[in-house]
Amino acid sequence: MPHTVAALYQFVSLPDAAALQAPLQALCESLGITGTLLLAGEGINGTVAGSAEAIDAFLAELRSGPLLGGRLDNLECKLSTAEAPPFRRLKVKLKPEIVTFDGGRTDPTRGAGETVAPEDWNALLARPNLLLVDTRNAFEVALGTFEGAVDPGTRTFSEFRAFADGLDPAEQKEVALFCTGGIRCEKAGAYLKERGFAHVHLLKGGILKYLETVPEAESRWRGDCFVFDERVALGHGLEERPGHTPEETR
What we know:
Elements: E1 3-11, H1 17-31, E2 34-40, E3 43-50, H2 52-64, E4 76-82, E5 90-94, E6 114-116, H3 118-125, E7 130-134, H4 138-141, E8 144-146, H5 160-165, E9 174-178, H6 183-194, E10 199-203, H7 206-213, E11 221-223, E12 225-226, E13 233-234
Parallel strand pairs: 2-5, 6-10, 7-9, 9-10
Antiparallel strand pairs: 1-3, 1-4, 2-3, 8-11, 12-13
């Protein structure tokens, strides 16, 4: 039976992140869920897998159950499937940030840019003088990216700040950002907004939502999309792509 995989995140104030660690661990264990969840004062991030029923129950608890008290009512989540178990164990970790960038100084909840639905993304890319930037790391970009996208050449996401500092808000009137699921775009977009970029666009739901939503015949995506689990790469329709190994992409 296929395993349901949920890639999820939300930037939201969680001052009680440490107190949530043990209950979330127990919840996942009771449902037979494996994968990784990251908790920080700025929110939650992770990818987990289990039966369809288990993932449904887990997401329902996050979004509307008493454990989080309704704070994850805007949880971004992409669902896909895996034929083999994509994770070997469960990890629920406390971190300074849910995606490592600058120690938490950049706050996406203050404004990260305008989100663009996947079905509207192609029209945005057709605009003249648009700077399209892939916010992922170089080994991910090498596996696949959008036509015309700039590769910042980063080894880690925190290096994106140096790339962004080299851009001039006066010259780049419109910037479009994308990443795997949306989380890095929000941090990068917030950083650009703080630096004075007036028009920043973010692909809502990231590459995964685009591949799920946009028909392959209309797609501007080329290649496969790296994912951080045993499947390694996904293609259009979020189908597993054979032939890739973790070692080849790092």
